[in-house]
């Protein structure tokens, strides 16, 4: 586990990371991307880290891939590419830099390493897991294959490399319906998210059977929450991620992956919107959509929130936190991830 006192002592020896209003002023161009959601005093704290990371990543020939659930200072301040799991996986297979820093959770870093085995992939905190990835092992995939002989296994990218290696193809929330529909079988096994599987089943002509995993952020929402919110805030557009239970999705005005949600809000520009997903999503798009008032509860992913500017700077400085995937596992997992990327490109997703 990363020892924060060691991290701080190493960084303070090398960098001037004291809050600086002067530096914050000099970096107004970056701050302008998040000034609706980050206060000036907080920006004065973040600015020295943002500058140090942006200088160091050039020296290391590194690129930072930031997930949509990162906090705004990471998402807007240091990420070179941002997006959902599918967009980041595709980007990991294309980038030319020697080092990838994954500003996201561990399965995403493994996916990057699987797709770019020759690159160094750095994880700012190895404890940044995912309740979905932790809900199933390779043995679970074997169990499902015994239970449903001949049915293809479509695994969400929120899985370990071993689970991906045991699957036929991966999917993300942005392509799950199309991937399942493209399988050459009436019955399709989906792992590990029971709610994504049920939501896909509602849009697919396949018999979708699934593993009982769930996301600890999205499973918290209930249809009653949405009904009450609508009653108290008439006119608010409710937009749900498909990791939410199906009865929550049914109450929403729209459901989509994080990139689907961003596109929907950009296209529709509702006066008021409540995003039924991880809290940072709304913060990250607030500045580019000043006409939309984002309202509602803030459910944070404790895993995503383990990633901080301080830890990103530390791994870039020390080159610790390198993610490795055993070659035999990586070869099989790559086939499943690549099959998803190829099919997504073929379907124009
Ligand atoms: S938000 Fe849910 S699915 Fe995403 S990393 Fe956190 S626990 Fe996993």
Molecular structure report:
45% of the residues lie in helices and 13% in strands. The chain has 349 residues and is of the alpha/beta class. The strands form three sheets. It has a four-stranded parallel beta sheet, with helices on both faces. The chain has a four-stranded parallel beta sheet with strand order 6-5-7-8, with helices on both faces. The chain has a four-stranded parallel beta sheet with strand order 10-9-11-12. Helix 7 (106-115) packs across helix 17. The model has no long low-confidence stretch (mean pLDDT 95). Residues 105, 130-132, 158, 215-217, 243, 278, 301, 303-304 line the site of iron/sulfur cluster.
- Given as residue ranges, the uncertain stretches (5+ residues, pLDDT < 50) are none
General shape: globular
- Please state roughly what percent of the residues sit in beta strands, choosing from under 5%, 5-15%, 15-25%, 25-35%, 35-45% or over 45%: 5-15%
- By DSSP (H or I, 4+ residues per run), the number of helices equals 17
- Termini separation: 38 Å
Mean pLDDT: 95
| The CATH top-level class label of the largest domain | Alpha Beta
Summed up, the domain count is: 3
Largest beta sheet: strand ordering: 2-1-3-4
Rg from alpha-carbon coordinates? 20 Å
Tell me the CATH superfamily of the largest domain: NadA-like
Give me the CATH architecture of the largest domain, please: 3-Layer(aba) Sandwich
Helix content: 40-55%
SSE class? alpha/beta
Catalytic activity: iminosuccinate + dihydroxyacetone phosphate = quinolinate + phosphate + 2 H2O + H(+)
Protein name: Quinolinate synthase
Function: Catalyzes the condensation of iminoaspartate with dihydroxyacetone phosphate to form quinolinate.
Pfam families: NadA
């Amino acid at each position: 586990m990363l020892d924060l006192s060691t991290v701080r002592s190493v960084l303070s020896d090398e960098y001037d990371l004291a809050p600086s209003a002067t530096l914050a002023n000099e970096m107004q161009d970056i701050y302008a991307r998040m000034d609706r959601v980050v206060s000036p005093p907080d920006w004065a704290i973040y600015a020295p880290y943002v500058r140090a990371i942006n200088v160091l990543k050039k020296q290391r020939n590194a690129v930072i891939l930031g997930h949509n659930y990162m906090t705004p200072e990471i998402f807007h301040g240091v990420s070179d590419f941002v997006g959902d799991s599918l967009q980041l996986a595709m980007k990991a297979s294309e980038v030319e830099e020697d080092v990838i820093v994954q500003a996201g959770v561990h399965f995403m870093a493994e996916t990057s390493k699987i797709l770019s085995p020759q690159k160094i992939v750095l994880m700012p905190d190895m404890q940044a897991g995912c309740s979905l990835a932790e809900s199933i092992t390779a043995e679970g995939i074997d169990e499902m294959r015994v239970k449903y002989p001949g049915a293809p296994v479509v695994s969400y990218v929120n899985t370990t490399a071993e689970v991906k290696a045991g699957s036929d193809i991966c999917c993300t929330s942005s392509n799950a319906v199309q991937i399942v529909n493209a399988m050459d079988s009436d019955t399709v096994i989906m792992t590990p998210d029971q709610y994504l599987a049920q939501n896909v089943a509602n849009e697919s002509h396949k018999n979708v059977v699934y593993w009982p995993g769930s996301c600890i952020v999205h499973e918290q929402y209930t249809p009653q929450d949405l009904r009450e919110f609508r009653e108290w805030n008439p006119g608010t557009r409710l937009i749900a991620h498909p990791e939410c239970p199906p009865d929550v999705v049914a109450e929403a005005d729209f459901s989509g992956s994080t990139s689907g949600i961003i596109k929907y809000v950009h296209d529709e520009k509702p006066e008021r919107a409540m995003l039924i997903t991880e809290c940072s999503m709304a913060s990250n798009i607030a500045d580019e959509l000043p006409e939309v008032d984002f309202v509602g509860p803030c459910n944070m992913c404790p895993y995503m929130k383990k990633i901080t500017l301080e830890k990103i700077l530390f791994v870039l400085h020390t080159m610790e936190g390198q993610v490795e995937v055993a070659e035999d596992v990586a070869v099989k997992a790559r086939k499943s991830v690549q099959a998803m990327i190829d099919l997504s490109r073929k379907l124009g997703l």
